[in-house]
Amino acid sequence: MLFFSAMYTKKLMYDKYGKWDKEVWPNGATRPILVWEKRKLIETQDELYSVATNGTESMKEMFASVIVFDSKNRDCLSENYESKDSLINFFATEIRDLSSNKKFYDVYWKMVKEHNGTK
Length: 119
What we know:
By secondary structure, the chain is an alpha+beta fold. The protein is built from three helices and four strands, in the order H-E-E-E-E-H-H.
């Protein structure tokens, strides 16, 4: 899949599930990993997932990433996870259908600027 923004996974989760539950700021990071907890990703399942989103954009690289754990704390994107393909399809489809709504960016950049002490 071709990416035009490292923020795709963050925006997807915000647009679909609202503001994140946690921000994780690795040492020295100027942007956080955003975490949503106990969200239903696949309509045909009762499973609630925890999702962490990240990404980077530079002159050398660009990627959007996602980590997904189920209610038993299993890595849902591991090779043997039974719903791995459904989850990959969920994220691929949702990214492809992202809206042009800018609300996520307003909320996100305000939080980043406040954390980094800039205006």
